[in-house]
Amino acid sequence: MMEFKVLKKSKKSKARLGLLKTKHGEIQTPCLVPVATQAVIKTLDSKEVEETKSQVLICNTFHLHIKPGEDVIGNFGGLNKFMNWLKPLMTDSGGYQVFSLGFGKDFGTGKILKQKIKGKINLGQQPKLLKITDRGVSFRSFLDGRQLFLGPRESIKIQEKLGADIIFAFDECTSPLADKKYTKRSLLRTHKWAGICLKEKRSGQALFGIVQGGKFRDLRSESARFIGSLPFDGFGIGGEFGDDKKKMGQMLSWTIKELPETKPRHLLGIGYLEDILKVVQAGVDTFDSIVPTHYARRGIAFTSAGEIDLAKRAFLKDKSRLDEKCSCSVCNNYSKGYISHLLLAKEITAFKLLTFHNLYFFNSFVQEIRNKIKKGNI
Description:
Elements: E1 3-9, E2 16-22, E3 25-29, E4 31-34, H1 46-51, E5 57-59, H2 61-66, H3 70-75, H4 79-83, E6 89-91, H5 95-100, H6 103-107, E7 131-132, E8 137-140, E9 147-150, H7 152-162, E10 166-168, H8 180-200, E11 206-211, H9 217-229, E12 234-237, H10 245-256, E13 265-267, H11 273-281, E14 286-289, H12 291-296, E15 300-303, E16 306-309, H13 329-333, H14 336-344, H15 349-375
């Protein structure tokens, strides 16, 4: 089972230092959780991921259920042995795919609206490609078109076979376009599923409940109080985060003040570089993000001087390292010009080098935040 201890609380914000102990090791919080969707950080092996200072990864229950299947992974003794990752692991519940493959796909939106979109999601409305009921969600496999069903019982059983240290309750992640009536109905469904997940779990894995409620203050607070009152080992903060990032800060504040102080809080799917300090100051302990890895595959490097698009030909003659202030093996051994050449030549090693650097940079950024909390500067 998991243990969590708050080591220090900031006097300047809600930030806190913590230590999260699991079967596969300790996690110093606050902590970035890189996303290993299909039991891999694309282009890196597990040893390389460890060298980026990554402490814990999160894998995707929905995708691993489709391929290779939880029975295959269970036969290997669980995800840690399957992917040769000796540190802690999380698995999501599949609830995010209810959004991303549903209304997210229908309207082309993420968890935060980046532009105004006409249309609202009203009570009773269904996504085009899946059906949501009180029992769970019917999907169609993107691999072979077969019908799939995922509900709270199914999600827990799959996650138990996958064997991660920390698993999440099944929920419906709502869209920023959902109106209040839809969000309220969805919230009640998520709360019902939370109770089923607690009853279904048989393993010694830590189970986190997920707070929903969308952009609506009363629903966020209601959900945090309800989920916070249940015997979960920790709490995920999920769902949409409004029309802009200013609202995200408010919504985190509404939520966190209703959650138990003694248990860890995980923010699901948020982690742009400019977000990290804000979410830590709001009281978040761990957060998962695809940003460092996803941007690497677009040729973007994060540096102390800002983002650099190395796919631009202007960098071909640049002999300098990616970041003079970074001590990672990529910065110590390769020039911007070389990585730019690899990108323009469509060589996959470019993605490997940028993925390694970006993860190291993000983890170092969060490490420095932990140091500042320790010193009382944040």
